[in-house]
Amino acid sequence: MKKYISIMIAVVLIACNILACSSEKKVQSGSDDKLKIVTTIFPEYDWVNNVLGENVKNAEVTMLLDNGVDLHSYQPSAEDIMRVSDCDMFIYVGGESDEWVEDALAESTNKNMVVINLMDVLKDDIKEEEVVEGMEEEEEEEEEGEEETEYDEHVWLSLKNAEKIVKNISEEIQKIDSANAENYKKNAESYIEKLDALDKEYGNAVDNASVKTLLFGDRFPFRYMTDDYGMTYYAAFVGCSAETEASFETITFLAKKTDELSLGAVMTIEGNNHEIAETIVENTKDKNQKILTLDSMQSVTSQDVKDGVTYLSIMENNLDVLKEALK
Predict the structure, then answer these.
(1) Would you call 219 helix, strand, or coil by DSSP?
(2) Quick one: the chain helix, strand, coil %, rounded to 5?
(3) How far lies 286's CA from each of 212, 264, 283, in Å?
(4) What is the crossing angle of helices 42-52 and 311-325, to 10°?
(5) Helix (H) or strand (E) segment spanning residue 236
(6) Which parts of the chain register pLDDT below 50?
(7) Dihedral sign, CA of 111, 116, 119, 123?
(8) 69 DSSP assignment
(9) Which residues pair with 265 in a beta bridge?
(10) Tens digit of pLDDT for each residue in 160-187?
């Protein structure tokens, strides 16, 4: 797959260079004057729009993963690569799922492009992916050389991380468009205040909860969130797992742990397949636990954005779900 993407990138970049050298190149009316910002995932897209504020009308902001495909299974199209190659700012997560980015940026036609790697912004705050007790272990692929550390990519699910990232995005946009720098700074400060207020609400909810453990019959992308507020967790799979079926041992462990901790809910992430969570409940003593869903924002579409979905609205909904789970 990586070889396929590299070949496609090479073909697209050749086409981009030909277009760049052509005096007959066509552009949309006024598009040359607009700030072109390309983001990979929804949280980045929403953060950028909040920083831009009213100046969003003078920008062309693109969300590449706009059709519900999550970060782990995304494959860039030729159009996606062309957008990345000549934008003014490109924002991506920077984990294992973004391996295609390095090749796409290597031959970029815009050498002044500002690139923001979320994991680089967070530096020491990023966490290694971990396998906790009872979790299905991933099958290791045999590769030559040293084994690379795998980091948890789901950095956007921490409000504390979001504050740092939004500040960085604002600072970089201010450099590109200095004429409107003060507006971008104020917009970011106002938005960060909202993130901070919601962060405090999460902290208070966990502090006042009778239960401080989440149990997922699903993948678990919420480690940054649970660590922020001192919660513990159990889950069927790590956050980046491609597995869809859990072993008898995993189901049994999670069902017994639900009984042992007297948990009133088994958690899932967004999506229609809650079969593992349902099976866990069926194997508990009382078989009456609720199945609750936390949204990891990995399936947000452009239509959802048009319908008014925002990063804050999802995190506010997640807080309501969290309060229910921790009763």
Answers:
(1) strand
(2) 50, 15, 35
(3) 20, 10, 9
(4) 130
(5) strand 232-238
(6) 1-5, 7, 11-12, 14-31, 141-143
(7) positive
(8) -
(9) 290
(10) 999 999 999 999 999 999 999 999 999 9
